[in-house]
Design goal:
The structure holds two protein chains of two kinds. Chain A has helices at 11-46, 49-57, 62-65, 79-107, 111-136. By secondary structure, chain A is mostly helical. Chain B is of the alpha+beta class. The relative contact order of chain B is 0.13. Chain B has helices spanning 39-50, 84-87, 110-118, 138-142, 161-165, 171-182, 190-197, 211-215, 222-236; strands at residues 7-15, 25-33, 69-72, 75-78, 90-94, 101-103, 106-107. In chain B, the strands form two sheets. In chain B, strands 2-1-5-3-4 form a five-stranded mixed β-sheet, covered by helices on one side. In chain B, strands 6-7 form a two-stranded antiparallel sheet. Chain B is 32% helix and 15% strand. In chain B, helix 6 (171-182) runs antiparallel to helix 7 (190-197). The chains are: A mainly alpha, B alpha+beta. At the A-B interface, helix 1 and helix 4 of A face helix 3, helix 7 and helix 9 of B.
Amino acid sequence: MRFRSAGQGSALEYYLWLFTRLSAVFMLFIGAFGIIYANLAGGRLTMDTPTQYRWGFFPIYWHVQNSDIPDVFPNWSNSFWRVYGMIFLFIAAVHGFNGLRIVVEDYVHRPILLLLAKGLVFVLFLFVVGAGGVVIFELF
Amino acid sequence: MAQGEPMQVKLKIRRFNPETDKKRWWGHYQAEVEPTDRVLDALHYVKWHVDGTLAFRRSCAHGICGSDAMLINGRNQLACKVLIKEVGRKITVEPLLGLPVIKDLVVDMEPFFEQYRAVKPYLVNDDPPPATERRQSIEERERFDDTTKCILCAACTTSCPSFWARSDYLGPAAIVQAHRFIFDSRDQASQERLQILAESNGVWRCRNIYNCTEACPREIQVTQAVAEVKREMMRRRV
């Protein structure tokens, strides 16, 4: 029997559980704010629905520029939207990859495989955040 | 199905005898029952008239002891509570999932009870016994009323995909038992129970799938009980 005795509990599980719930609600607000702001700033008549959603859930200014909006104010590539996009991406990545970690912990039982799988999940997390950061801050 | 008239039902039963079988197999049987009979009566018919080697557990046969929980037409149910007219003429019966099969429909309940014991499912109060009983208000008793109904049939735990995935997960039944004492105003070990449930094999493995609530033959709001334990942990910062 693989039952574990008392005293091995981890506060991390609790905080990640709480983070998952709060971040889900937070991401809804952060996405809604992006869409609402884009409409108020001039996208209402010029952005099609897919563009609005792309902007809402991954706010990089190309999404707006590629939509051929003539003169929207403010400039979508300013620092605010870049930091905003980076925060959104980071929260979404922690939320999603933590979910993947939980699935891995549920279904991978052999310790060495579990370690490898969790390592892979962490590497993928770093890659997504890193690649997203490169795109958002145009580090290429 | 006319009430009270005998009818033929087809039973497909998952069989396994560890002494003779390498793999589990399906046994096909016919039983003569009435629509208002229970699935347990159909199993009795098979055992008493068709194949005496069929093994299954049952004790009170009235939905109280919880010993005849099994997978009936894909749902965890008590064979003594499900009527033939509710499941139709074709009935598939399998042992509970996630626990080792001893023979046919009989599973080894020891892993389940080990997890049950881990949450200290008994009243802990080190105060000297009072002259009369330990009194409790109606509201205090109401707080854990739902979870007192558990009969430890294991229908909830063995319907839980998190338990199927990892057998070290305490499972909904153990959490329900912990809930029954955590919220009991007379108990003094709730903090200790919450610490046990805070471990990596405790309540955080619950994914709110609600299979347990669907499966409970006593209609306990199992997922809600689990959520209440989580909230209590947050409140007390366990």
